[in-house]
Amino acid sequence: MAIQGTLTINTRERGAAMGDLFGIFFEDLNHAADGGLYAELIQNRSFEFDPIDHPDYHALYAWDKVERGGGRGEVRIEKGHPLHPRNEHYVVIEVMKAGEVGIMNLGYNSGIPLKAGETYLFSMFARQEDGTGLKVRVAIEGVEGNTYAETAIAVVSEHWSKYEARLTAPATDFSGRLVVTIDGCGKIYLDMISLFPSRVFRNRNNGLREDIATLIAELKPKFMRFPGGCLIHDGSLDANARNSMYRWKNTIGGVETRPARRSNWRYNQTLGLGYYEYFLFCEDIGAKPIPIIPAGYDPHHKRVVPIEELQPWIDDALDLIEFANGDATTCWGAVRSSLGHPEPFNLEYIGIGNEEVGELFFERYAYFHRAIKDRYPGVKVINSSGPFAAGSEYDRGWKSARENQSDFVDEHYYQSPEWMLANYRRYDSFSKEDPHVFLGEYASWGNTYYNALAEAAFMTGLERNAHAVGLACYAPMLCNVDYINWKPDMIWFNNHQVFGTANYYVQKLFMHNQGDYVLQVSAEGFNPPVHKEIRPISGKLAVGTDQCSVEFSRILLHDHETGQWKYLCEENIYLDDTEEAREIGSARRMFELGAVESRHYTLSMKVKKISGRAGFLVHFGWSDESNHIQWEIGGWQNQDSMINAFVNGRSSILTQSLFTVENDVEYDLVLEVYNRCIRAYIDGILINDTEDRLPVIEPLYYSSSLDEATGDVILKVVNIQDVDVISEVNLGGMESRSLTVEVAELSGHSPEEENSFLEPERIVPIHRQLNSPVSHFEYVFKGQSITVLRMKKQPLYSEGTK
Ligand code: AHR
């Protein structure tokens, strides 16, 4: 086959600096920390699990009572004499008849993963009362009660004291148990029963699971955004409340002094992995820390700190910067130093709020911004533009960022792969004079090879536009397969295995080959891009509701192509999706209105919500259940009007504005469709205005950069089509050089393939090397491939011949 075109890289001119472009985002959802990266093997070590965290929880959750060998006794929870006021509960084991009486921990997933030959560090706090001393048997066992290793600990003190032991597993068993029983009769009090593998990442105390941490470290991220996500702002304003927002000061110091926390992801966060550990982890993996702190506003529950009480929240931000960067003479620098890290953590960035929406946030942001810039002018402050890619709140975030001169705006979106392809030029028009984009959360819905291809194509657009996009990280990062809150995720694990998805390997390729400066690439000779017509926005029309009872009336369709007007139903339509209706089996969520063939039409109607917490829906452009567009008014929090396009069941919220549906108010809805443009009006006001862009299938998607230290020229090329594209690659400016080309390539997979626990490395890049006697060469970019070419100049003459 002949060459189809040429990619010429201008190596003479450096473009925008790429800074810290590609990093990672860590949030403790999907049991990413507890039961995940945090290496603690005991679930509910401090007996603090509570129904506030999850309705199934109780203080003895994940613990079973043990009564063996004829022993009899009682196991109960008390809180009269706690180990620490913030760690109220502890277990009491009272043995009336000697035998083996005590408790057994079930761990996470199938149990405690024991590996043959590995040593485990046991610790607990204990006290007893009668002064005679009690012997505690500590054992690691199999699920059938077979003992792998055991030890005896004498508890003598009447005061809480820490006891430690080491146990080595003689066999591998991923369903192990930790058993703590009392030898003889008596009463004992236990708390903070802990078991860590002795091998943890970088041998840190209170450390991290080696396999997961290593996979993360191998990405070589430039930064880590943490600790959330919604996790940081969903909660009470009271820092001492169990369901408080994520307050960093609660997360440092001895683990026994950290309060347990309800996480909005419906489980208990021990905070064992706290701010100090996050900073250490960043340091260990060479990633700059980007903490995100709450701004005293919970957009999910509309909790807000009055402006006159905001100062302590601002102080938290300032203190955090001091904790990270201050020397030991500063108050918080001294705290860091006392924890074992006299050197600063060199914090450069701080984020205020996570995908916040609403005026209340923006009002507060300005106070944080000013205070931080006054005290720490060099620290870059990150504003927020909400959870959507476009719309009124997105624009509001940008307005605030411009007004306050924020350094970055945190954008978040989770979209279909088709949206990624349709929008890979999203940042081409962004100005370098504006605040920079921090793409703090993004992903296409799925972990297939096709998702990876679409994300890679999109990421070439991020790289090319490094003048505007300063930071970007895929989300979420981690998921424990038995505790899924959110899918897809970049890395999956259970209690003993971990694997990176195809998306992971794309991120890794981009991180390893980021470069320092953008280089311009020009393409010549290729076929023009093709707009892939997924479906016209015509077809079935329907109305619907979500958890409400609603009444639609006077539904009128104006077909602008035929000029026809028609009412789509003669009678009013009642839909009822309330819990009551569901209980008696009479729920009705959707009503089909017929179809429209035209691509230019207006649909209008009246609608009233009678009861329920959300709102209503207008479905259009309907080919089938998985491929349609919906105008959603209300949404899960009853605060949005948004246009949501589904392609093969994967949604993309094209635009959003704030709107709350009131009960018993009749609204006038008008939806206008003109080709791929969509406009929605409520009571005559334009509320959503968007275009459902078609995916652009380029012959190749590409970006290039210069690695300053090595002088390497890096070219990334994504070929989405299923046919090979042959291209000449030309290094303009290095005409007389011969090259060594290091190739990393993801190819040879069908779109639906995925990595899995069974085949963790089914999709991984292959590496090879090419030599070119001149600075231009022919390369076959395989169908459906992601290729990184790292071009290394050869010296003009070898040293010996000089
Ligand atoms: O990444 C998962 C969640 O998505 C984050 O917590 C939140 O910020 C976003 O809505």
With helices defined by DSSP (H or I, 4 residues minimum), what is the helix count? 11
Oligomeric assembly: single chain
User: Cα distance, first to last residue?
Assistant: 41 Å
Query: Main beta sheet, described?
Result: 8 strands, parallel, barrel
Mean pLDDT: 96
Query: Rough shape?
Result: globular
Query: Which ions, cofactors or small ligands are bound in this entry?
Result: alpha-L-arabinofuranose
In the predicted model, the low-confidence regions spanning at least 5 consecutive residues are: 798-802
| Secondary structure: helix percent | 10-25%
- Write down the Rg: 29 Å
What topology, given as strand order, has the largest sheet? 2-14-17-20-21-22-23-24
Query: What percentage of amino acids are in beta strands?
Result: 35-45%
Category by helix and strand content: mainly beta
How many β strands by DSSP?
51
Report a brief summary of the structure.
This protein is mainly beta and 802 residues long.
How is this structure best described in words?
With about 800 residues, the protein is mainly beta. Helix content is about 15%, strand content about 40%. It is built from 11 helices and 51 strands. The strands form 11 sheets. Strands 2-14-17-20-21-22-23-24 form an 8-stranded parallel beta barrel, surrounded by 5 helices. Strands 32, 33, 34, 36, 41, 42 and 43 form a 7-stranded antiparallel beta sheet that branches. Strands 3, 6, 7, 9, 10 and 12 form a 6-stranded antiparallel beta sheet that branches. Helix 4 packs across helix 6. The longest helix has 17 residues. The C terminus is likely disordered. The structure holds alpha-L-arabinofuranose (AHR).
